[in-house]
Design goal:
about 450 residues, alpha/beta, TIM Barrel, eight-stranded parallel β-barrel, two-stranded antiparallel ribbon, 10 strands, globular, binds D-gluconic acid
Amino acid sequence: MSFPDGFLWGVASAAYQIEGAYDEDGKGPSIWDALSDGHVLHGDSARISCDHYHHFREDVAIMKKLGLQAYRFSVSWPRVIPAEGVVNEKGLQFYRDLVEELTQAGIEPLCTLYHWDLPMWVHEKGGWYADRISDDFAQYTEVVVDALSDKVQYWMTFNEGTSFLGEGYLHGTHPPYEKVPAGTEEEFDKVARLSRNLLLCHGKAADVIRRRAKLPPKVGIATDSTLYIPESESEADIQDAKARTFAGDVNHYLLNWWMDPIMNGEAHPRLQAILREGEMETIHQPLDFLGWNCYLANNYNDGPDGKMAKYWPGIPRTNSGFPVTPDALYWGVRFISERYDIPVMITENGIAIIDFVMDDGCVHDPQRIQYLKWYLRGLERAAEEGYPVIGYMLWSILDNFEWAFGFEKRFGLVYVDYLTQKRTLKDSAYWYADVIRNNGLFDGTEVPAGDESHERIER
Ligand code: GCO
């Protein structure tokens, strides 16, 4: 068996991208609800999106039909704490019902506490700049842990601190749309200040989870990061790629910027300089697993010195413009586990392509299947060589709201018609169901060869 026993096959999503019901049952506004109008491609907004808030039972039934073993979802902070000091029981009940439904379906719930929908009230009190955010986040974490930890074991404090910090506070593409000139002292100061608060939020939340969880928790974080893969498999090239992956710059896209403090209690001097007494102890709490989101290796995009090492004109790209880089999961898992000696879960990987419902009523998406085969082969190699990889969460179960790109990018295994909320399983959904049943890839064919007893899921 190429993947270890107990390997978790699942899918990932995020509250703001799928839930809709933006002001129902006492939910408060997030910065996305309040500030994103006019900033999203085609004027889209996620007020309704996949309306998962009302369709979650149908969506979990689809997951069950596909044989998914795990579902990574996020909790919306403003749904649970809509205003300072207010706990919204109805919002909390939605997540209780969701994890109950998952548990009944035999699907392991994996909970992310923060996937970018900052409550507007927190933003108005200084948001990521304010010291108080880590206490507010710890209180929110207590409420969620008390409500869900009888069923949830896997916890991720954050999703991609890199992205929301960069997009929202440096590049001006996500709310609150702040911009600073790249490579300046102003940028470095901002990165350090916001990273400090984010790491303190993470540390306090990790502590809350360990102290209060009813089921023994597995605490992690979901990160993405710059990855360089070697030009060849010579030792020199491997070491070079690794050194570029874990470089020493003030750069929040580097995994070591975050994980050195968390795992080793060591911060970049720029970050160390602004930490106050005792703060490193709060941050430095080794994790049970590292969630890693990966879509590409960076040497196809750009290089540290502007050199596009592996780029060539016409390189295959996804509909997000990402280069297709099949070996990324192998090298990522290998480099991360070598540096941090920690089990790695792929918490996101997937592809946006141009999907249609075709005349036969189906969504044929061979590019997605091929992409997943390529990337999973890399992951399989990592597992076979003994690197500790514990799960794979495909992004995403449903087509959904892709942030600044609105509904144009479709990442789902399930096609969503946003006018009718009709769900249509794409070919890749059936294919992924077979991968799961096989605990890994099968030789290029849709059904494992020679397995007479293997029944395809009926459409
Ligand atoms: C991210 C987020 C997801 C995205 C996905 C596709 O990585 O940006 O975690 O919310 O939708 O990655 O781009």
